[in-house]
Amino acid sequence: MPEAGSPPVAPRPHVLVVEDDADISGLLSRYLGGNGLRVSIAGTGAQVRGFAEPSGVDLVLLDLGLPDEDGLQLLRLLQGQWQVPVIVVSGRGEPVERVVGLELGADDYVAKPFDLRELLARVRSVLRRAPSSRTAPAPATSTNVWRFDGLTLDVDARRLIDRGGAEIELTNGEFQLLRALLEHPQQVLSRDQLMNDLHGRDAGPFDRAIDVQVGRLRRKIELDPERPRLVQAIRGAGYRLAASVHKD
Ligand code: CA
């Protein structure tokens, strides 16, 4: 029991559970709360949009099937305005195409019925990989800048600047993918390697998640996304960044 005057404790990561089934959200709240996480619950899209403190949320668990709003629309809000990592929880019987093929760009996917321990492992994995907004370093002090093909990635500030000097917004998943490619320029990275870098596990049933993310990234960084030249697919092997990378 902390007393007044005891040393400050690091804040618990804050997970927002978006789920309209009260049994499931209650179960998640108890389980995640009992494992060192702070949990808030929103049962509708409206509650998410009205959430008082989006900047204090470190991760969102997003059920796609909500009563008042398609979870896909919420995902765009969370990744755009909120800039927060998202694990999508797909409903029973929802086709994988809906989860992966619609180019969600979520950080991970969990299908119902899920195993709580597995879910917790995914949550921890995403939290480890996503820098907390509360601890993000100030861009001005950054020296970790990588240049490739006329583009500039400030790794610490997570800012990508295009060939004309404008900022390109990246989701967390796109940023992690780009960083993984930039760390190994001119080398073929297998989907397993990329899955491990991005999600901490081998490519499995969601193998296509990497392909989807590559497609999204291409549209942001290729001069001609229809004929990608920078991020090349190597048949049967994986992907390769065809550029030299200069690190300041
Ligand atoms: Ca639901």
Question: Mind explaining what this structure looks like?
Answer:
The protein is an alpha/beta fold. It has 8 helices and 13 strands. The strands form 3 sheets. It has a 5-stranded parallel β-sheet with strand order 2-1-3-4-5, with helices on both faces. Helix 6 (172-183) packs across helix 8. The chain is globular, with a radius of gyration of 19 Å. Residues 133-142 have low confidence and may be disordered. The structure holds calcium ion.
Short account of what is shown:
This protein is an alpha/beta fold and 248 residues long.
Q: Which features does this protein show?
A:
Arc Repressor Mutant, subunit A, binds calcium ion, about 20% strand, alpha/beta, Rossmann fold, globular
Strand and helix layout:
Elements: E1 14-18, H1 22-33, E2 38-42, H2 45-49, E3 59-63, H3 71-82, E4 86-90, H4 96-101, E5 108-111, H5 116-129, E6 145-148, E7 151-154, E8 159-161, E9 167-168, H6 172-183, E10 188-189, H7 191-199, H8 208-221, E11 231-234, E12 238-241, E13 246-247
Parallel strand pairs: 1-2, 1-3, 3-4, 4-5
Antiparallel strand pairs: 6-7, 6-13, 7-8, 8-9, 10-12, 11-12
